[in-house]
Amino acid sequence: MKTLKVVLVAALVSITMMSVAQSDDRVGSEFQSEFIQLSTVLQNADLCNAIFMQIDPRVFLTVDDHVGMMTASIKLNGKLYKIVGTFKEWNRFFYPLRSEKVIPGDRNNE
Length: 110
Prior knowledge:
The chain is an alpha+beta fold. It has helices at about 1-30, 40, 45-55, 55-60, 85-95; strands at about 35, 70-75, 80-85.
């Protein structure tokens, strides 16, 4: 009887391991992500609206270092978009009328 229990437990563990191994492939196919430059986002009105709805510029633009690229993650229609742009591009996107404003300590203005 002990042998039967050990064999059943081993079979249960092996079947569970096989089902877990097969489910890894399905998780990857449902998740979609795409990198996009901020300059190309301006052509897509839905994506622009999603950025304004999901990102607070007062929080997003408060970084100490204005050098380099900044990335924002936006979800739209079940797809994840990673929007990439410089600080100046993001500042121009959120505040188009005051984009020429000089930001103290910004090395990009020089």
